[in-house]
Amino acid sequence: MVKTDIATIGYSMLRKSIYIVLLTFTFSQTSMGGPNQSSWLKNQTKSNVSFDEVAALVDRGGSGYCLAQKNGAIFWSEDGSSWNSSTGTVSMTLTCADFFDQNHGVVAGNGIFEYTTNGGESWTYKEISFFNVRGVCMTSANTAVLVGEGGNIALYTFGNGVIIPYASPVPTRLNSVSFYGGTGYACGDNGTILKFENGIWTSLSSENGQDWVSYTDPTEMGRTANLNTVKAIDARTVYVSGADGVLLKTVDGGASWSRRDAGTTQDITAMTVKPDGTLSLNAGGIQLTVNDQTDKYSVKMYYDRLGRVVASQNSKQHAMRPQRFSYTVYDALGRNVEAGELESDAEPTDEMINATDVRFPDNWSRKRYQVIRSVYDEPIYGESTNNEIYQAFGEGGQQHLRNRIA
C-alpha cells in the first residue's frame, strides 16, 4: 500500500478490486478467535485471573495491559498471553483502571484509589470519601478525572490528594470516562453520554431528545440501556458500550452516533483498543475482538479484466439490510448500456464478473432499483404523449448518431 496525506489506495489483482480510504466507510467484524486472540483467555502465570470478574482491561501505555478484577486483584501482562500479579491489592471492590504511559496508572473503586509509577508492579493506596468512583481516566502522569455515583465528576491530583469537583449536568450514575487531549467523554446509566470541551461538561442527546441507544436503533422501541464504558480514539472518534451488547460509535465529536455489531447480547463491562486498532471487549466473562473498519473506506470498487468499474458499494449501501451495490453493464464497444442498484449480501467474485456463460450481473442478482438503460446507434421513432421530444428531431428522426447515445 502507498499512503498519502488524504487517502490510502490498495489494489488486488486477484479480486480486481480497489479500496479508496477516505475516512467515511462502514465495516465491522467480531470474533472470539483470530491471530493471538485465544491467548487472551489463557493465564500461564496466575491461575486466579477470572475474566468474568474483570472490572477493567486497559492498555498500559503501549507496553502491555492492566487487568483489574472486582475483588481487588490487579494483574499486568506484556501481550495478554500470561498475567503477572501486582502487589498492593485491596479487599474493596475495584470498578475501573487507566494508564497514562507505561509506568503511570490508576485503579479505583468504592471508596479507594490506587496509583502506580512502575507499570503496575506495585501500587500506592489512597482513600476517597468524596464519592464512589465508577470510572477513571488519566489526563497527565499525575492527574486523573474521576466519575461515579450521583453524576459526580472530579479532578484528582496524585501526591497531595487534592480533589477538584466539576459541575455535572446530570444526577445519573456515571460509569466510565475517557479523554483525548483536552476533550473528554463520559457515559452512564439510562443511555447518558457527556462531553467535556472548553472546561465545561455538557449532556449529549439525539435531535429529538432521546438517548443515543434507542435513537440509533429503532428496533429498541425507545428502550434505554445502561452504558458501562467509553473509549476516545481521538477528539472526534469515540466508542461507547454497555448493557445487552450495545456498542455505539461517533466520528464527529458526539454530534451523531451509530450502532455497531459487538457480536454479543451480554453486558459489555470492559473495553480497550489494541495496537492493531481492534477493540477488545469483555462481555459476560468472554473476551471478544471487534475489528471495526468503519469510516476507513468511502467506496469499494470492483473491476473486470479490462479494468472497467462494474460494481461499487458505499457506506450507506453497506449499512442496508440486505446490502446494496451499484452496478454497470457494458456493450461490446465498452459503452454503458445499463446502470443501477441491486440487492445482495454477497460480494461479486472475479469469476462472476468475468463469466462468459451468464452475463454479469444476471449471475449475481436480479433484484434491482433505480435502473437506467442507454440506447446507442438506433434512432428514436414512434409517438409520445409529449410530441415535442420527437418533433425536435424532425421528420426523419435522429440522424448522424455515429455510435453515440440515442
Would you kindly provide a written description of the structure presented here, covering whatever features stand out?
There is one protein chain. This protein has 406 residues and is mainly beta. The chain has helices at residues 212-216, 315-319, 350-353, 388-391; strands at 2-3, 8-12, 17-21, 28-31, 54-59, 65-69, 74-77, 84-85, 94-99, 105-109, 112-116, 124-127, 133-140, 143-148, 153-157, 162-166, 174-180, 183-188, 192-197, 200-204, 227-232, 238-242, 247-250, 258-259, 268-273, 279-283, 286-292, 299-303, 309-314, 324-330, 336-343, 368-373. β10 (105-109) and β11 (112-116) form a beta hairpin. The strands form seven sheets. Strands 1-2-3-28-29-30-31-32 form an eight-stranded antiparallel β-sheet. Strands 4-27-26-25 form a four-stranded antiparallel β-sheet, with no helix packed on it. Strands 5-6-7-8 form a four-stranded antiparallel β-sheet, with no helix packed on it. The chain contains four helices and 32 strands. The two termini are 42 Å apart. The model is unreliable at 1-44 (pLDDT under 50).
